[in-house]
Amino acid sequence: MPAPLLVLAVGNPSRGDDALGALFVERALVLLEAEVAAGQIELLCDYQLQIEHALDLAGRRQVVFVDASVRAEAPYEYAPVRARRDESFSSHALSPAAVLETHRSIAGEPPPAWVLAIRGERFELGEAISPMAIEHLEAALTFFVGTARTFLLGGVGRP
Questions:
Q1: I want to staple 63 with a disulfide (CB 3.0 to 4.6 A). Which of 94, 113, 129, 148 is the partner?
Q2: DSSP assignment, residue 155?
Q3: Is the preceding omega at residue 96 within 30 degrees of 0, hence cis?
Q4: pLDDT tens-digit profile, the chain (159 residues)
Q5: Could you give the C-alpha distances from 105 to 1, 18, 23, 52, 100, in angstroms and in order?
Q6: What's 53's domain CATH number?
Q7: Residue 80: inside a domain, yes or no?
Q8: Residue 99 has what DSSP assignment?
Q9: Coil, strand or helix: which one is 135?
Q10: Does the residue 73 lie in any domain?
Q11: Distance CA 79, CA 95 (A)
Q12: Could you list the residue range(s) of the whole structural domain that residue 66 is in?
């Protein structure tokens, strides 16, 4: 049986602040160790969202997509996302909305979903993650751990 809460993070650790998604999962695994071990939360990370990720949504009560963003307000933005088609013609690098739409087309209505966009500044190949991005990551983790635990305890609304 799938965990009720899925966290699906994306990013490339070789591209500076684009490592935020992978670092989020790495640190959340430690902070939410008991919830992961109990099967309440599943944390996945990949370089980019793909059509196949729609299958990961099956049986979930909530999904949170995590990614670095140059457009998000610092330190992070957290907003609901709804299923809709992308305008692209590729089966690679889908948006969270397109993953939800893919799920809808193959398996029915997707679970409620949120995007946690963590502010990043530097995304060049070979760059290290910036100190400011690390600060933003810590703020996002603090927020997420609290809201995830409230959700898992039967709280209403968003994780």
A1: 113
A2: -
A3: no
A4: 899 999 999 999 999 999 999 999 999 999 999 999 999 999 999 999 999 999 999 999 999 999 999 999 999 999 999 988 866 544 447 899 999 999 999 999 999 999 999 999 999 998 999 999 999 999 999 999 999 988 887 754 555
A5: 22, 30, 31, 13, 9
A6: 3.40.50.1450
A7: yes
A8: H
A9: helix
A10: yes
A11: 14
A12: 5-152
- Find out whether 114 and 100 touch, Cβ atoms under 8 Å: no
* Predicted TM-score (pTM) of this structure: 0.92
State how many domains the chain has: 1
Cβ atoms of 13 and 19 within 8 Å: the answer is: yes
If you ran DSSP here, which 8-state letter would residue 156 be given? S
Residue 157 in any domain: the answer is no
How far is residue 17's CA from residue 12's CA, in Å, rounded to a whole number?
8
Q: How many CB atoms lie within 10 A of CB 100?
A: 25
* Cα 93 to Cα 63, 96, 99, 157, distances in angstroms: 18, 10, 10, 28
Tokens of 127: 């760059």
158 falls within a domain: no
